[in-house]
Amino acid sequence: MSQTTHNFSQTTLFVDVIVPLSVANKFTYRVPKDMNDHIALGKRVIVQFGKTKFYTGVVYNIHSNPPKDYVAKYIDTILDDTPIINETQLKLWDWISQYYLCNPGDVMNAALPSGLKLSSTSHITLNPDFNFEESYYDYFTDKEHVVLDALQHNASLGFEDVAVILNIKTIQPFVNSLIKKGAVVIYEEIKDKYKPKLVSYVGISESLFNDELQLKEVLDTLEKKAFKQAEVVLTMLHLLKSDETSKQLGLVKKSTLLKQFDTAVIKGLVKKEILFEREIETSRLLFDNRAITQKFLSDFQKVALKEIETHFETKQTVLLHGVTGSGKTEIYAELINKVIAEGKQVLYLVPEIALTTQLINRMRAIFGNSVGIYHSRFSENERVEIWNSILAENEGALNAKHFDIVLGARSALFLPFSKLGLIIVDEEHDNSYKQQDPAPRYHARDAAMYLAGLHKAKVLLGTATPAFETYYNALHNKFGLVRVNQRFGKAILPETVICDLKKETQQQQNKSIFSHQLITAITDALARKEQIILFQNRRGFAPYTECHSCHWIPHCVHCDVALIYHKQTNKLSCHYCGYTMQPPTSCNACGNNDLRYKGFGTEKIEEEIEILFPTAKVARMDLDTTRSKYAYKQLIDEFEMGSIDILVGTQMVTKGLDFDNVSVVGVLNVDSVLNFPDFRSFEKAYQLIVQVSGRAGRKDKKGTVYIQTTQPEHSVIKHVLADNYLEFYRSQINEREKFHYPPYTRVIELSVVAKDVAVVNDISQQLANQLKPIFGSMMLGPEFPLIAKIKDQYHKRILLKINREYSPTQVRNLLKQEVDTLQYNNKKSQYRLQIDADPV
After folding, report:
1. Which residue has the higher pLDDT, 673 or 682?
2. Residue 534 needs a FRET pair 20 to 30 A away by CA distance; which of 225, 262, 401, 677 works?
3. What pLDDT sits at residue 783?
4. Could you tell me the pTM of the whole model?
């Protein structure tokens, strides 16, 4: 990457541009000489790609070397006055592209909020060279007449507009017919998705406001003829003296006036030129000021803080291994205070958007409005504004501010920090930090450590159940390690009770999805006005529907999975592709009408709880109930306030939430996690049980966790009862070493994907034959996964276990060579190759 500014206006310049497409290379474009002094690294440019498409690219490099293999096209437009991406961000993009074996455009798509990416949208307009009068009537069909008439009244129409006018879905052939007849031409319109938020304000006419005598005369007249209008002016005068924002602007927010007065009254004053209206661009990121409170650390928290600071003197990364409820957030807050005092920024990462809801209140109670939030549930406009705020370039916006702390999910890594001092990765073990699809399939924890290195910042990893890779690095002195083994205040670690479902079934005690012990515990907790959390990692009502006679099960037509019954919508749904159908009334195989719903999801748990405890207030937290932007917040707020007695949920309820009054937690089906065929399954099961257990007994009440299982003697459950993470880690790590799994090796998964299963078999075997001589016994497969077909695409996988001495660059070069050979040998085959480094 070269310098960010240039002052040689007559030099022929070229730029390497990252385009938002999954292509391996950056593309070189020529800079028009009148743009030489304006081009800079990190600015967005509009470039032509192909014959007609225009894309927003990012300037990656500036030089004077024309491309050897093609003639460089000219840049069309420079969009930014100043760069929106800095050099440090581009270095992070490079690393992600190299380490996770993906293309630069994939990283750009993940990094930039969509409001900063412009879309190229096809439009049609009348062809000015076509003579409509000569052939208008007999040359076009009725539908074509309709569109041409619409174009007579509109300068242009988008493809979507044409579809609406004609009430047809596929309009490409229709538009193509008009183009062939020469009646219309197609063009590409660049459309900016970001729209600033404009707020209406009202002011008193300057001549009146500066002349007290004239203002008094106007008020006297209004009081006699239009008393309501006089009230509006008097209210405004009061607000302009008492309200800080109004005083500063010399304007009053129109919405404030509309709470007391009708729109017609205000419009009347504007018409008389006593008032005027003005729209001002303002930030969407302003929040109500809150009283800032100070937290005091306990003695053991002070010791932990001191140990972290000592480790930071020699190490970039420290693992804070603290039991659930040990007050890790308070320790984070103390560190944040010190970093802010040094004039630096803090990035606070959380795995789930649900966690930001509760954490933001806790952080703002300590740091006020210096805390910003960034995650995918924010609108495009909100994400652009926080990006601009961190750039500190939002000069035209009202009350634009720079955030000292950004709290967000994994995408917050890509924000344009310039003086990052600390990254906190809370619940670092969580799989949600790993991006699954599409590429880049990066892990936010590992990317955070690389980003911190670029900024010479520190990283604090916090969790009660560290990932094995993290704990291995801590024990081998790569990371600092600080342990906290007691809960904050008077809180006591919960008691764990194992409910043996097999035994209860044999003794005919269990007639529902809840064990006898759990039902008793819920009954007692409700009597004490305490709250309950029930965890089941499957949404919907029933995982599958089965014919009682021949055991036929309805499957998705696009995926190799059983359809899940959702009672609320009365539909069978596929959770992979979204396919739905009405539940069949009879078996498609034998015709029997005795179809039964098997297993249970969160919907069924909620229904049974309502039957067993009709007076209890029950709510459900899963993907189906939290699709809207503020659904998480509403559910969590209601549970905190005690409006909900029993919260049923998927893994959302297991992660870092802090509720004072929860005394009972039920894990309803731990067997599904224990028995999953994956080398990490025991690690994940242990983490899941401990994390969900941590929601119980957070204050001075002792909580109880009920784990329902048919395998009470399972080694993972025994380790949970022993409450000794180190012993559990030691019991598993030897197997990892023996079978060459992480942390002793690096795993890369290659998936061949195609609609034709024969193509998948052929291509995957060719790839295996190429890789076998290189990796030998370190290669597994090719094999079909548990779910071989998803969205009409078959998947077949090869697993590579790479020795740690290979650098990411070596691995990328080695694989690229083999993949290029594979693609060259199969130019006519329709398939995709997906690469996932460090799958979880």
Report:
1. 682
2. 677
3. 96
4. 0.79
